[in-house]
Amino acid sequence: MRIVLSILLFISTSLCVHAQQYDLLIKNGHVIDPKNKIDTKMDVAITEGKISKVAKDIPATHSKKVVDATGLLVTPGFIDMHTHVFVGSKPDIFADGIYSVSPDDFSFKSGVTTVVDAGTSGWRNFPTFKSNVIDKSQTRILAFLNIAGSGMIGNPDQEDVNDMNAQMTALSVQKYSDIIVGIKIGHYEGKDWAPFDRALEAGNMANVPMLVECHLPHYSLEDQLNKMRPGDIITHSFEKITERESVVDDQGKVRPFVLEAKKKGVLFDVGHGGFGFWFSEAMPSLQQGLAPNTFGSDLHRFSMNSGMKNMLNIMSKYLNMGMEVPDVIQHATWNAAQSLKRNDLGSLTEGSVADIAVISILTGNYGFIDAGGNKINGTRKFESELTIRAGKIVWDLNGLSAKNFKGN
Amino acid sequence: MKKLQLNKLLLTTLAVCLIIFCSGSVYAQEIDLLLKGGHVIDPRNQINSKMDVAITNGKIYQVAPNISPQKAKTVVDVTGYYVTPGLIDMHVHAFQGNAPDAYIANGFTSLSPDGFTFRAGVTTVVDAGSSGWRNFRDFKKQTIDRSQTRILALLNIVGTGMASRFEEQDNNDMNPQQTAYMINRLFPEILVGIKSAHYWGDFTQVDRAVEAGKLANVPVMVDFGEHNPTNSIEDLFMKHLRPGDMFTHTFAYGPANRETVVDENLKVKPFVFEAQKRGIIFDVGHGGGAFSWRQAIPAIQQGFLPNVISTDLHTDSMNGGMKDLCNVMSKFLTMGMSLQDVIIRTTVNPANAINKPQYGNLSVGTEADVAVLNLRKGDFGFMDIRKTKLKGTQKLEAELTVRAGKIVWDLNGISAPAWETELQKK
Description:
The structure holds two protein chains of two kinds.
Chain A: H1 2-19, E1 22-33, E2 38-47, E3 50-55, E4 63-68, E5 73-76, E6 78-83, E7 87-90, E8 112-122, H2 126-132, E9 140-146, H3 166-175, E10 180-185, H4 194-206, E11 210-212, H5 221-227, E12 233-234, H6 256-264, E13 267-268, H7 279-287, H8 311-320, H9 325-332, H10 334-339, E14 356-369, E15 375-389, E16 392-396, E17 403-404
Parallel strand pairs in A: 1-4, 1-5, 6-8, 8-9, 9-10, 10-11, 11-12, 12-13
Antiparallel strand pairs in A: 1-2, 2-3, 5-14, 14-15, 15-16
Chain B: H1 2-28, E1 31-42, E2 47-56, E3 59-64, E4 72-77, E5 82-85, E6 87-92, E7 122-132, H2 136-142, E8 150-156, H3 176-186, E9 191-197, H4 204-216, E10 220-223, H5 233-240, E11 246-247, H6 270-278, E12 281-282, H7 293-301, H8 325-334, H9 339-344, H10 348-353, E13 370-383, E14 388-403, E15 406-410, H11 419-425
Parallel strand pairs in B: 1-4, 1-5, 6-7, 7-8, 8-9, 9-10, 10-11, 11-12
Antiparallel strand pairs in B: 1-2, 2-3, 5-13, 13-14, 14-15
Helix pairs in contact in B: 3-4
């Protein structure tokens, strides 16, 4: 009898080992994977940090660990197109300074698995950024390299045109091509177009997009958009501040040249930040066909506790402004990946890295604030339940992946 | 000429009217910010009822039922929410920096507090010994002086603070006199005690910390890891620490590294009650590895409650079972502690423990640090550090946080005007 039992046990154990081909299985969630046109209930299996299968009814017995995501959305991990994460101890600046923030402090709790730094570093200090932050963070960090050699080191140093070197910038992009995704121009208060042109030149040399940020008071919006190439990105799209013309005119109409630029292929990022998002711009824009391509948060010390909060909150704003859930997810994932020319990211394609967001949609009474301190009310809000980065659970709000406590 | 005089007259009249109008409104609107309709829990002042809280010039101006909204420049309706003193997190690591190979002191394991505090209703944090007397001034310069959160600190008995686990063993760098001087002579407003932590040896480090504590007349907080074999916590409580000294990571379960407060039969050790009676302060210090249900639940059930609820916030705890102070507080609610008892342990108790009675209350005239908390209802889960979960039905969430009279967090824009209304005004 004992022998029979042992044999049975042996067989079943070996069967189990053979059967448990997956490390982690997320079952019963509603998968939204825009790249692969999936918007239905499916299971997602992960092995060795990669997506190994997305299908209906994958048996729970095939996985070492199972998470029940009934009632939740399962999507690719979000990509935040616009952050400032070159954090360091220098006072009063962004580059290696305290105005930047640590990405891990904010990313996973809002479903974000990749952040893109918006030119906080330039070619001179990118290696410091890499060793101090990028290599030490769990969040995947990609970066736009500032055309200013030392990035955002404050005025007047960051405006030194002599330190805007297209060639060195392009060479750095090539050297760190797995991290650097483009060139950034911003924070130049002169009238000279040399900084802008050099950023374009570097972009052409390295064949990467340009990100046009803020604080370029003497460049008209129309001139900026005219100079931009298809695939270049303008951020702070919906800001209403004196130093940049707004995309919407006084009559609430999106300016024709803005729509032309969109048609040409210029990409519009939110870049919410502390001052970059106004309902008075964003609402008419959305209604008139100027939806943002991506939901960059412009996360930094001065936006984190404002109306911005985190990228998931921006996504909730668009949800309550009328954008459909699958659209919101697409802007936060596949759109962002494509605009970064990183088609390996932003989807649940089998074989790709397992960066996943598991999201709930809360219903209730919520409010959302813009940069002007104005509010819209809403009835739905995204909350990040579980975040997976390269197959590892890095955030679990309610212990979805945990065993119940049994008393000891 | 005539027209000019008429204009002059008109202008004068207007100016007079303006002055009358302005002074009238100044007189009437003596309150800058009025939080109306909330349920106030202010343990120091024995308030636990529906009241309004008025703030003027960054200070608490009045706490009373039915304060007239006409007296206030800004009124925020906080009906349905709890209004408490800004929470105090007794145990964080905020000395963030990028010194090469640094651990917590000027290192990447510490974090910048403002991104975690206000969104959890916290307005004051106490850094638990990240720095020592050799590097505290760097900490002050780069973090304390530049944060919106009020940062107080326990000074590590080790001169270089938590530079690394290895440096923390250096007996020759545990100088009670220098530590006490820095607290008393240099920074008495910020430095509120002494930390002893991560020591591999006998009682030497604790004894040095207590010696410094006596010299400076401040409490000592002890993280009593990582002795192998473990040292007796009964000896620690009864022979080495003074009443008022603090024991942190109370509900840690790692019997090989530190003796536990609850034994293997899930009974609270009798001397633990004795120690609390003697005046030892028990701090939660949840962290990434120091909170287990198998310690906390039996303790609460058997009547051993921590004196202070805190996070041990750092990069290895922030995304784990800990998350933030509201989440840790919610765990205690889920274990059956009352909201009032939870608030006591995050306001008046920590303030008393560090001899800063001016914080953690809503007394008239004190700096207006206020938390407006929502007690969410629903199905929630709470993980301990061993990734086992306790299910609960309520969870605290910070709706609005006020620091020195200024709104520094507003989750749902309860203080903001509606956009449509603004548009109509145009």
